[in-house]
Amino acid sequence: MKAAITRDRFVLLVGESTAGKSRAAYEAMRELFAAHRLVEPAGRSATQAAVDAMLGEPQAVLWLDDIERFLGEGGLTGTALSGILAGKRHSIIATMRAEEYSYFNGSSPTVADANRSRDTIRQGWEVLRLATRIDLARPWSNAEIQEARRIDSGDPRIAEALTKVDHFGVAEYLAAGPQLLATWRDAWAPGAHPRAAALVMAAVDARRAGIHRPLSLDVLTQAHEAYLGQRGGHRLRPEPVADAIDWATTPLHATSSLLIPGGDGLLIAFDYLIDAIARESIPADALAAFIDAAQPEELKDIGRVAWSWDQLDQAETAFERASSKYSESRVERGYVIRERDGQAAQRLYLQKTVDELIGRLGYNHEDAIEARLSLAWDCGYGLSIRTPLRELKKLEEESRRAFEQFHPIMIHIRLGVGYWLAEGGEVAAASNIFLQLFHACLENLDEPNWLTYSVMMNYANCFVTGSQGQGIVDFYDDFESWMRNRRAPAQAITSLRYERARALQEAGWLDHALAGFQSILSDEERMHGHLNATTLNAHCELLKCLAAKGEHTQAIRRGKELLEECQAEAHATNINTQFIRLTIATMIGEAGDVAEAIRIIAELREERRRLYGEDQPEVRAMDHRLRYWTAVRLADEGLLARSAVELRQLSEDLMISSGINSELRKKVAESRSRVTMKMRKGQIDGSRRTTGP
User: Fold this and answer.
1) Is residue 227 very low, low, confident or very high in pLDDT (cuts 50, 70, 90)?
2) pTM score, whole prediction
3) Residue 674: CB partners within 8 Å, gap ≥ 6?
4) DSSP class per residue in 291-355
C-alpha cells in the first residue's frame, strides 16, 4: 500500500465495514506524510474549500475517509482531483466500503442502486476511476493471522480477537462490530435503552436514505419517534434523551460506539450497523425529518428511497424541493404523481411545469425543453402510441433552432422517436436511429453518460427480436463485456440482466430465463429488502417465468404468499398489491381458471375506477385484460368464431394504445394463433366426416 501511495499518489482502500481500512490508511499516511499539511473536508459542501486549501499548500495530503460522503452534485469532481495530483508533492488517501464502491462502478452484476441519481453516479465515478484501488478483506489471511500470533504484542484485545478468527475479522472484532450489533438489539427491551436504540435506528436509516454526514440531535430526535412508536412507544419505558445519547455514544471496550460524535453536537451511525441490518421500509415520519434536514443533492436520493418503498407523499416532497436545483427531479416527481394519482394527474402536473418554465425561462431554455420532452414522451401511454411519436418529432424540429445536433437533449428526443417507432412495429427504422445515436453518444458525450447505455439497450431490444436462444446469449454476453470494459454503472448492468432474461423467456429458453430472474431477485433482496418496489418487480418477473414453464401451482402459491406479506406491511400501497394481484390473476387464468382471473381483474378495474375515474388509461388497461380473458372463455366454450373476432379487435386496439411490444398484445397474438389452429382443425375434421364412407 505504501508503495502505491508513493507511486500513484491517489489510493482508495476498499473493503467491508470494520475491515481496518481507515486505520491502515491512517498508519500509512502518518508514516509517509509526517511533514505534510493534512486537509479533510467537513462534508460535501466543503469539498471546494478543501481543494483550494490543497492547491495553496506546497505539500499536503487530502484525507477522504468514507469518500462516498463527498461524491455527487456539489462534491468532488474528477477535474478538481486531477488538479491536485498535478502538484508533485500532493497526495490523496481515501477509504470506501465495498458496497458503496459497487454503486458507482458497476463492477459486480449483483449490485444495483436505484436510490442514487444518474448524475451522482457519473460524477462519483469520474473521481473513483482516478484512484488506485487497494482491496482490504475483513477476514485476515492465514499468513496474516500467523504473523500476528508470532509478534505477540502483549495486547489482550488482539489476543482475544485472534481466538475469534473463525467467525470474525480481527479488525472487525477489535472495532467491536459484532458486540455493538448485539448490544443494540438487546437495547430495545422494555426498561433497557429503547430510546437510544431508536435514535441509532434513525441515524442508520439517515445513511440508507442518502445523508452521509453527521446530523443534529434535533433531527435524530424528530425521526426516532417513528421507530419508538413501532416497537411499543411508552410501553417500552424509554429513558430520557440525554441518557440515551450518553449510552449510545459511549465506546464499547474503548473502541467504537453505536453513535459517533461528529463535532458541534452532530452524530453519525457506526457504519458497521448499516451493512448488518435487514433492509426494511423507512417510516414516513422519519423520512419527513430527513427531508427537512437534507441538502438539495441529498433530496434526490431521499426521494428515490421513499419512492422505492412506496412512501409517495414523502417522495413527492423530496423531489419537489430538489427540483429547484435539479431539473430531473421534476420528471421524477411526475412519475410519483402518476403512481399515486393516475396518468391524467401526471399530465396536468407536467403541463403546468412546462407553462411555468416557459414563462420564467423562455420557450427554448434547456429546462423548458426537458419538461416538454417528458410531457411528449408520456402523453400517449394507454391512449395512442402515435401521439408521443408526433409530439416528439415536432419537439425535435423546434429544438434544432436552440441546440446542436448531438446535444444530449437532441439525443434524448431522438431516442424517444426511435422508442415509439419500435413500439409501432417499425423496428428496422428504429434500429437505424438507435445505431446512429449510439455512435453519436460515443463521439460526443462523456464516457459514463447514461444516454449511451439507454440507446444501446433499445438497440439490443430491436436486434434480438425473433432471435434464437443461443443468439440472444451471445449478443448479450458481448454487450455485457463491452459495458464492463467501459466501467458502466451498476444500474445499467442490472437493466441489461433484465433484458437478457426477458428476451430468453420470449425465445423459449425458460431455464436460462428463470436462472436470470432468480439471480436478479436474490440481489435485489440483499440490496433493497424483501418488499421494496424493485424487489417486488423481480418477484413478479420470476413468477411469470415459472408460470411460462408450466409450474402454475408453485407460481400461484408463491404469488399469494407474497401478496399476503405485502398486504400485512403498514406501508404497502395500492400500486404494489394491484401489481401482484394482476400477476396472480394472469397465472390463474393460464392455469385454466378463467372465471377466477376475470373476477380478480374486475375487482382491480373497479378499484382503479374509484381511484382515478371512469375514462382513464389505468381503467382502460383493465378493460383490455377483461376483453382478453372473455375471449379466452369464449374459446373454451367452443365459440371460436366469436373469440377470434374479439381477439382480432383487441389486438388492433392494443396496437394503437400500447404498441407491438405490449405484454398483453403478445398474449393476444398467442391466443389468436391457438384459436385459428382450432378452427382450421375443426374444418379439416368436418371435411373428413362429410366425405368419408
Assistant:
1) very high
2) 0.77
3) 635
4) HHH--HHHHHHHHHHHHHTT-HHHHHHHHHHHTTT-THHHHHHHHHHHHHH-HHHHHHHHHHHHH
* Single-letter amino acid, residue 167: H
Question: Following CA atoms 440, 444, 445, 446 in sequence, which dihedral angle do they give, to the nearest 10 degrees?
Answer: 130
Name the helix (H) or strand (E) containing 135.
strand 132-135
* Cα distance between residue 227 and residue 207, in whole Å: 15
d(Cα 497, Cα 132) in Å, to the nearest integer?
28
Contact (Cβ atoms closer than 8 angstroms) between residue 93 and residue 61: yes
CA–CA separation, 563 and 581 (whole Å): 7
Long-range contacts for 504-511 (Cβ within 8 Å, ≥24 apart)?
Answer: 504/469, 504/472, 504/473, 505/544, 505/545, 505/548, 506/666, 507/464, 507/467, 507/468, 507/469, 507/472, 508/469, 509/469, 509/472, 509/473, 510/545, 510/548, 510/549, 511/549
Residue whose cell numbers read 433499445? 458
308 neighbors 281 (Cβ within 8 angstroms) = no
* Residue whose cell numbers read 470494520: 18
Q: Are the beta carbons of 525 and 302 closer than 8 angstroms?
A: no
Following DSSP, what letter does each residue of 67-88 receive, concatenated? GGGG-STTS--HHHHHHHHTST
Closest CA to 547 of 577, 579, 517: 517
Average pLDDT over residues 531-537: 90
pLDDT digits (tens, 9 = 90+) for 427-460: 999 999 999 999 999 898 876 678 899 999 999 9
Q: What is the pLDDT of residue 575?
A: 78
Q: Write down the mean pLDDT value for the chain.
A: 86
Instruction: Please tell me whether residue 271 adopts helix, strand or coil conformation.
Output: helix
Residue in the block written with cell 399476503: 564
How many residues are present in the chain? Answer: 693
Instruction: Reduce the DSSP state of residue 57 to 3 states and report it.
Output: coil
Distance CA 573, CA 309 (A): 9
d(CA 103, CA 127): 13
97 bridge partner residues:
15
The alpha carbons of the chain give a radius of gyration, in whole angstroms, of 28
d(CA 30, CA 32): 6
Which range is most confident: 154-158, 394-398, 610-614?
394-398
Please tell me the distance from the alpha carbon of residue 598 to that of residue 606, in angstroms, as a whole number. 12
In angstroms, the CA 108 to CA 324 distance is: 34
Q: What share of the chain is helix, strand, coil (3-state, %, to 5)?
A: 70, 5, 25
Give the contacts of 689 (CB within 8 A, at least 6 positions apart): none
Each residue's pLDDT tens digit, 281-305: 899 999 999 999 999 889 999 999 9
